[in-house]
Design a protein that fits this description.
The chain is an alpha+beta fold and about 675 residues long. The protein has 16 helices and eleven strands. A hairpin with an 8-residue loop joins strand 5 and strand 6.
Length: about 675
């Protein structure tokens, strides 16, 4: 084959050529050939650094995928590693105190990214967000396949969770890497949409060396990348190489030198579990590399918006092994040949969704027995004050058992029912319940947020809070304890027997040896926390049952609407946030602020089945407090009635925060 010939090199000429196994690889616009990890299927799972090794498109060039066409524009680490902002997209967190801070007073080895490092990641997000907002203002009518705003929402959610939720160090590594992958995706999308390079001059058309580039077996893709100056490497079978190809230089493939390939076993007590997914190169590998952990609200919905319908232009490994000519097109990628990638694993024997949707439930005759005790007011001074509109709604609900849908699930709660801590004659048992809840609270919140969102029956809660023995008998009661032990797991049970001297409840340190002398105000704050958490999870669970299509929305707009009903950025869970100093959101005493959250609630409830037609119109901003209260009561009644009709029991409703003056402080 001849060397350089007069004239400019084209897309199918070889500035460099490398022979790799039984393939030839050429590039018309780069001076190197990266080792191709594209000929065999591979297992996609986070490795020791939270990334996916050689098959990670954010670390090494991969096979072109039309659905992820922007991936060829992923920035190269070597180019940006000295940039004060962008270098954080490749930062590796360590267990040093400068990177990872353990939760103070926690019975579990969980913590958060150090606030200074979190701010650096926030700077990356803010810079990307600013750049994206400028582009969207410039092109407001863009309706192409690249949904930058969706990726930005996911990026922001991941960033906030790193700030709000405590995780094990290993989980933090995975979440930081996931955040960085989303940032790199947004960066490459904007590069793909914005970058206009000057026309090339000279015989060699240089690729833009800041981009990752892509392998392909499709000459049309090679031509497209060549024209847009994306680094590209074309895979050939030797017999299909045209005799008139211009070859400037033959080289050896370049091997990766700084990519982690070592897996790391999960420690005992790991909360965020992953199972590896095996898939082919091309679109399946790109998709699963972008798979992230399912956290918080996303456990009720599909967590990641796919970029579009299945494309027929991706290439499978079998295509790479087949005879390829310059006129052939890439074969269709089959999603059936790949698994679902890295995903969370739930509790053994539990369903992956909190409740089945109405469509998925088999029909049967009603078999609901109403528990009148659940509807009674709790007459205890530590119970936080009720919100008047919601309390009135609870009293006005129609409790006819015939209204309850067939096969309503058993009564279960995401957090212990506050009544467990105030009812019963034994003060020792109530104190034991309270102690066991406080030592397990952080671990339970973390697991409920990232591992499994299934509610727990009252009987199982009582068994757990009463202390599960280290050795369980083979009696009937022992079987019930064993069931509870299997559900909660060894880590949560262990802290019941190795109780620390104190625990951290939000911004309060509680000494467990003095739990019998805990002030009523402190206990009331613990109960308020249980009311609020249960309300949030039950609200989303009911929405998932009533509106399964909406809660599975790929764009996740419904998730954002839900977040707006709850004040702050805490989403569903609150762990170490300071206890609120004033009533917020739906409990706010400020008329304008209350109207704002009542309106958000109205918008969120309006698509639900049976929503009252007279509530479709919003209240004006000048509405009186009486009108706001009346609207809130009607919305609360609709919510409570909907909950009863589907679950056969009353929901746990939000409460006012306990104030010190009510307890003589």
């Amino acid at each position: 084959m001849g060397m350089t010939l007069p004239g400019r090199h084209g897309a199918f000429d070889a500035r460099v050529l490398a022979k790799y196994n039984d393939h030839w690889i050429t590039s018309p616009n780069t001076d190197y050939i990266p080792e191709p990890f594209i000929f065999e299927g591979a297992r996609v799972e986070p490795l020791r650094d939270g990334r996916m090794g050689h098959i990670d498109c954010f670390q090494w060039p991969q096979l072109h995928a039309e659905l992820y066409i922007w991936s060829a524009c992923i920035p190269r680490k070597a180019v940006y590693q000295d940039d004060p902002t962008w270098k954080w997209m490749w930062w590796n967190i360590t267990q040093s105190l400068d990177d990872f801070t353990l939760e103070r007073g926690s019975a579990f080895k969980v913590g958060r990214i150090h606030v200074d490092k979190w701010k650096q990641l926030e700077t990356v997000f803010n810079r990307l967000d600013g750049r994206a907002q400028e582009w969207m203002l410039k092109y407001p009518r863009y309706d192409g396949p690249l949904k930058v705003e969706n990726w930005l929402r996911s990026c922001r959610r991941c960033l906030l969770r790193l700030k709000q939720l405590p995780f094990t160090f290993r989980d933090t590594v995975i979440l930081v890497a996931f955040f960085q992958r989303i940032c790199l995706d947004v960066f490459s999308m904007l590069e793909y949409l914005e970058m206009v390079l000057p026309p090339a001059t000279g015989a060699i058309v240089e690729a833009f060396d800041r981009w990752m580039g892509a392998f392909t077996t499709d000459p049309e893709v090679c031509q497209q990348h060549f024209e847009t100056r994306v680094p590209v490497w074309l895979i050939w079978k030797p017999h299909s190489v045209p005799p008139d190809m211009k070859v400037l230089k033959e080289v050896e493939v370049t091997y990766p030198s700084d990519i982690i390939t070592d897996p790391e076993d999960f420690e005992v007590g790991q909360v965020l579990k992953w199972t590896g997914g095996w898939c082919y190169p091309g679109e399946p590998c790109h998709k699963h590399t972008r798979t992230g952990p399912v956290i918080g609200l996303e456990q009720f919905a599909r967590p990641w918006p796919e970029p579009g319908a299945q494309s027929s232009s991706a290439t499978t490994a079998s295509t790479l092994k087949s005879t390829h000519t310059t006129s052939s097109s890439a074969a269709s990628s089959s999603g059936a040949n790949s698994s679902m990638g890295a995903v969370r694993s739930g509790r053994p024997g539990k369903r992956s969704q909190p409740y089945p949707s109405m469509e998925s439930r088999p029909r049967a005759k009603p078999s609901v027995t109403l528990n009148a005790e659940l509807w009674e007011d709790l007459n205890d001074p530590t119970i936080p004050p009720a919100i008047s509109a919601w309390h009135a709604a609870l009293q006005g609900v129609n409790k006819d058992a015939k209204r309850v849908r067939p096969n309503a699930p058993k009564i279960a709660y995401f957090f212990p029912h506050p009544a467990l801590f105030v009812r019963g004659e034994s003060s020792d048992r109530r104190h034991r319940y309270l102690r066991n809840w406080l030592v397990s609270r952080a671990g339970w919140i973390t697991r409920l947020s990232v591992s499994d969102v299934t509610p727990v029956t009252p009987r199982t809660w009582r068994a757990f809070l009463n202390t599960i023995p280290e050795r369980i008998s083979s009696t009937f009661s022992g079987d019930q304890l064993r069931e509870a032990a299997n559900l909660f797991g060894p880590e949560l049970i262990r802290v019941q027997h190795n109780v620390p001297s104190h625990v951290q409840f939000r911004d309060t340190s509680i000494f467990l040896a003095d739990i019998s002398r805990m002030t009523q105000w402190t206990k009331s704050k613990v109960l308020w926390d249980l009311y609020e958490h249960n309300f949030r999870f039950e609200f989303v669970a009911l929405a998932h049952v009533l509106m399964p299509d909406m809660t599975l929305d790929r764009e996740s707009e419904w998730l954002d609407c839900v977040r707006q009903v709850f004040p702050g950025d805490s989403e569903l869970t609150m762990c170490a946030e300071p206890f609120p100093s004033e009533n917020q959101g739906l409990a706010s005493s400020d008329p304008k602020l209350k109207l704002e959250y009542v309106e958000k609630l109205r918008v969120l409830l309006s698509p639900w089945p049976g929503f009252p037609s007279d509530l479709m119109e919003p209240l004006p901003s000048s509405a009186s407090s009486a009108r706001v209260w009346a609207l809130e009561r009607k919305l609360a009644l609709f919510y409570v009635q909907s909950f009863f009709d589907n679950f056969g029991c009353p929901p746990i409703l939000p409460r006012l925060i306990p104030v010190p003056s009510a307890y003589g402080r």
